[in-house]
Specification:
Pdz3 Domain; alpha+beta; 2-enoyl-CoA Hydratase, Chain A, domain 1; seven-stranded mixed beta sheet; six-stranded antiparallel beta sheet
Length: 728
């Protein structure tokens, strides 16, 4: 009989032998730090110390432990590759990395990565071997797909057991969408080989970037190192300048995920794709097969999704928070160019019909704060910018007899600070707009210098969790001035300023190309002295947030800079809206009690809260099918109930009817796109129909409620005006 202690010794010896055998292979093809990386490491430490806004940064033993943990997590966050013995081996550096980084000694980082690369190849070889054996799905075992909080596998047998379940889950997912066994084997072999290939093709610059970001990412979330050629630059350039779907893609483990849906692009106009969606497969044309892309490189997926204007691409996607076994949905998008006109401000004119009559309102949809700097610098008098376009829109709205305006900043991640100030100036008289505090304590105040106001009437600003930076500056300024009622969700909370600083600027050696640092160098403050950092802008009237929104925002980062304050600017409030907001909030709450859309949202939030902490999924085919049917039945029941409630409340006088009468977006679809969309609708195959049979027509019920709030606001102001005239 072997004692527990002896068993552990044998296990460690076996793993040591395995590591020794693997090391021999690694030494022949190991990645090593380059001479330039030593210099870059030293320069990064110097740059952080001298220029970063956060001053209490100490690169010491405590941070060294955190760097090691973060680096290992960045490579194997789900604990699917490393053994516990690997982690024990790496721990010998836990109190040394601070001094090693200062001195530019990077061998430990590369040793860890080379071990990781070896472990990945071992796992992929094992996974592919499993595909040759028959698989059975009649036992009720569970696969733990989220292993972030699990222990590191102690030996090969433990890791094999984890991967056996992973492969079974991958196989079952494809089986449940009616793939044949041979096709499943082919798909998974390709998928697994691509994972190993992607890791195997990493360069020394990549390893250095991973390691440096484990260090600087601990300082605060918006500081990072970029190697001379990074995938981030590739993503931005590829997605915005070429024909495609209008989305920025990123990596989410073995998945390619949607990082940003570009406003005005084909994906945004289609309406189904959203941030965080994971792409499982891509198909060309309105019908036909879909190609599995799990495990593909980001570049290869982008190439597959791109295509000629007017052509059709289908994406099979999972929601960000869906567990692996959920049936994916298929989204059909007609490719088109993302034009400047589509990314620029758009507008709609809507009518709110109530018992007291019909009132015409304007909505300005602002996707970003933009300015055509090239045209501006070239002296073009007709250069495009946010404030210029919005001013033109406001003139058109005035001509149309609009009585109130909604500025929609939902999903607006920011952009030009200059344009945020200029746009604010269209709605206020002269005065400060935002304060910026820099690294060494200097405070700069950006002001609107023009006394001209393009709109003096009632104003509502809509925000959500993805409204950030310049959006928050604009919304906060109008809130502080009492110039607008802010409605929606708490904003992102990004109140910091980043500069991209080339390391080359700190050295006289111009022979070797070095990377860049994205560095936080300043912080924004409202004119009332408070910061938008971390806390964001709190709306005057809040709507229930969509399920999972609490996972986004500055406050979701462990190391985000805290909220703080400075002295307020000298400004004169336009109006005190506190009494109006109390009135409008009560009216909105009364509506929401009978507004079935908000009632459904509350139920969705409750359901999400029940499901969000589940870390495992059954590998029983019958149980998985039953759960899928249950989910489908729930959607169908919800859809039927929604229709019943819609009919029931159609005569409810509390809910004023909101009708769109004009949408400038309708003028931007190309002829090719319109024709392709019509063809796709006519030829939609069974696969697409089944994936969309329970989809409902999109209704922007938050916008409808914002319009009702603005309608109430206008009515209240008119009552006050009449009362004042009677007194006179």
């Amino acid at each position: 009989m072997i004692s527990i202690q002896n068993a552990k010794t044998i296990t460690i010896m076996a793993l040591s032998l395995l590591a020794f055998q693997g090391q021999a292979l690694l030494d022949n093809n190991a990645l090593k730090p380059e001479v330039k990386h030593t210099k870059e490491s030293q320069l990064i430490v110097k740059m952080v110390d001298q220029y970063h806004y956060k001053k209490d940064i100490t690169l010491d033993n405590n941070m060294s432990k955190q760097i090691l943990d973060k680096y290992i997590t960045s490579l194997d966050g789900n604990k699917m590759y490393f053994y516990s013995s690997d982690i024990v081996t790496f721990d010998r550096w836990q109190n040394q990395l601070d001094e090693l980084i200062k001195g530019g000694e990077l061998k430990p980082a590369f040793t860890i990565f080379n071990t990781f690369r070896q472990r990945v190849q071992e796992r992929i070889d094992y996974a592919i071997k499993l595909l040759d054996a028959p698989m059975h799905f009649d036992t009720d075992e569970n696969y733990v797909w989220d292993r972030e909080q699990a222990e590191w596998p102690i030996d090969e047998a433990a890791l094999n057991a984890i991967w056996k379940q992973k492969v079974k889950n991958d196989y079952l997912n494809l089986k449940l969408v009616d793939k044949e066994p041979e096709k499943i084997k082919e798909i998974l072999q390709k998928r697994y080989k691509l994972i190993a290939k992607r890791i195997g093709e990493r360069k020394s610059d990549d390893v250095f970037q991973f390691f440096m970001n484990a260090y600087v990412g601990l300082i605060e979330p918006h500081t990072g190192y970029m190697a001379p050629r990074t995938s981030e630059n590739f993503e931005i350039n590829m997605s915005l300048s070429l024909e495609g779907i209008g989305a920025i893609l990123g990596n989410d483990g073995e998945y390619t995920a949607i990082d940003t849906v570009v406003k005005g692009g084909p994906a945004e106009l289609e309406g189904s794709l959203k941030k965080g969606d994971k792409i499982l497969a891509v198909g060309q044309g309105a019908e036909g097969s879909l190609e599995d892309v799990v495990g593909w490189s980001l570049e290869d997926v982008v190439q597959l999704i791109r295509g000629e204007k007017g052509s059709i691409v289908r994406l099979q996607v999972l929601d960000k928070d869906e567990e692996p076994g959920v049936m994916p949905k298929t989204i059909t998008i007609t490719r088109d160019k993302v034009k400047l006109e589509q990314q620029a401000a758009q507008y709609q004119i809507i009518e709110v019909k109530s018992e007291s009559g019909t009132r015409k309102l304007g909505v300005i949809d602002l996707p970003t704060f933009y300015m055509d700097f090239d045209a501006y610098q070239a002296g073009d008098p007709d250069f495009r910018s946010t404030s210029r376009d919005v001013k033109d829109i406001l003139e058109k709205m005035s001509d149309e007899g609009v009585e109130g305006v909604i500025v929609d900043l939902r999903n607006n991640g920011g952009g030009s600070l200059y344009e945020a100030v200029q746009l604010t100036g269209l709605f206020i008289d002269q005065g400060p707009v935002v304060q910026t505090k820099f690294t060494h304590g200097k405070v700069d105040v950006k002001r609107d210098l023009s006394a001209e106001m393009a709109w003096t009437g009632p104003l509502v600003v809509m925000v959500n969790r993805f409204s950030a930076s310049a959006s928050e500056i604009f919304a906060a300024a109008l809130q502080d001035y009492g110039r607008a009622v802010i409605v929606g969700d708490q904003t992102f909370g990004k109140g910091t300023v980043q500069n991209v600083l080339p390391l080359q600027a700190l050295t006289n050696d111009q022979e070797v190309e070095l990377g860049q640092m994205k560095m936080t160098v300043a912080q924004f403050f409202r004119i009332n002295g408070g910061s938008t950092q971390n806390r964001g802008v709190i709306p005057d009237i809040e709507f229930p947030a969509a399920p999972g929104f609490d996972e986004y925002g500055e406050s979701s980062y462990d190391n985000a800079l805290p909220w703080s304050s400075i002295r307020p600017s000298d400004f004169t409030q336009y109006e005190d809206l506190s009494e109006e907001i109390v009135y409008l909030k009560k009216k909105s709450r009364d509506r929401n009690k009978v507004n079935f859309e908000f009632a459904f949202l509350e139920k969705e939030i409750a359901l999400y809260e029940q499901e969000k902490d589940k870390k495992s999924i059954t590998l029983s085919e019958s149980s998985r099918q039953a759960k899928s049917e249950e989910r489908k039945a729930r959607k169908e029941a919800r859809k039927a109930k929604r229709e019943a409630l819609k009919a029931e409340h159609s005569e409810n006088k509390v809910l004023d009817e909101v009708v769109m009468v004009f949408d400038s977006n309708d003028t931007h679809k190309s002829k090719d796109t319109i024709e392709a969309e019509s063809e796709a609708l006519a030829n939609q195959d069974d696969e697409d129909e089944s994936s969309e049979e329970d989809e409902e027509a999109f209704v922007d019920f938050r916008m409808h409620e914002a319009a009702r709030i603005l309608n109430d606001y206008i009515g209240l102001k008119m009552k006050k005006l009449l009362a004042e005239q009677k007194v006179k």
